């Protein structure tokens, strides 16, 4: 056992392993979608270096087994070359990466200057993290070899090797998924559930009967959850809307149902099943009807993110466009943030459909000449939940709604994926043109709404807001082995021309970009600023609305967040 441990755990890395690690470590510094803080660069460098280590170690093993014997003097020369060239390359790429990061920061409107003392921490932190990962991998290998020796006493060597590998895989996967991952998820959910009981500073229970959580509401203030309380507690009043428009206004309707609405505990299993989603959708329709939402001029069904959050910059513009003669409805289907909900839970797949179907069923029974204009909207995972309500694609979406706004869509949004795949030849993947822009258009900045130039944009209108540098939009597992289309041909204006695709490396770079997607100025990454107001003014402009009105609304919302 000691001899095996000496060979596997404490053995000095091979030449191929270190060469692979150095190569991938250097590539991890190359530009990606967003500028990275030093600690994310350290994580990206460590992870990619470990994969390079594994590839290099395997390649070296193949060479040793299949290739000619290498003389000792050649080995020594190779190690000297690796030490000198590798060390020089690490210093050079670290220094050059400061320039790359400066270019990335400049592209998204940030100060291009970077503190050298921070970037100097990348190497030691990456070394520590990489060493821990290699140690874990070697410990697993040691355990697998030990299992093989034990099994080899009873079965042939080939069977012992296969059995040991299979058993080790089961144990590792079982530990990660059944203990480590499940434990972390349970901890995250309990923490999120506790946070759901809090109320943001400045948010108070509304008194207007048009808002959920008010004294007249079917839904209690406590049952709305933290994000629901934010949604109704930050609704503009009729007086605020009139202050902008100069015309009489109504208090807008905002209806919301939280996870705690049924029994108040927040952990009712029935609330998280398909039946539970249907029940909350029914309650949302009842609350919307109570507040007078079906008697307003426009009605928007909102898809929420994992925690039930609704972006105020998506919700508020419609209320100002229509002098408060509007209604919006949403419900919560999880406590967890979107990135965890998307990976671990299936509620988003059914939540959007459950809410839209319930609202549409009630809306369809109303007289056609007096019911509100029905529209849908969602951001990030909320856009995914919204799209799932329309399995018939763009034709169903435009046939059953009066317009749609989908912001920062995920790579798995089925409707967006179809529209993008069927885009007109020559249009880039980051701003696709679908059926000459007749109903569906993509934008990052206001000028994009005019693409394609000269083409009629008919009602109902569907707008996708997606930034060229938004990793939430462009991350996908295929980045491991396939060059993405958004790096081919013309690129979005905020994507670095020096960004290149490297197998595996780019995947981890964009994965790290996800963590920094909100740490950039508006208009880049996963921050869409006031573009939703620009979009709503084009999706559903009131009669007589002009571009000057849009500019004034955008300026007003910027001053009154």
TrEMBL record:
The lineage of its organism: Bacteria, Bacillati, Actinomycetota, Actinomycetes, Kitasatosporales. This is Membrane protein. It comes from the Bacteria. Residues 253-553 form the Alpha/beta-hydrolase catalytic domain. Residues 29-236 form the Alpha/beta-hydrolase N-terminal domain. The chain crosses the membrane at residues 12-30, 42-65, 77-96, 116-137, 158-181. InterPro entries: Alpha/beta-hydrolase_catalytic, Alpha/beta-hydrolase_N_dom. Signal peptide: none annotated. It holds the Pfam family Abhydrolase_9_N. Keywords: Membrane, Transmembrane, Transmembrane helix.
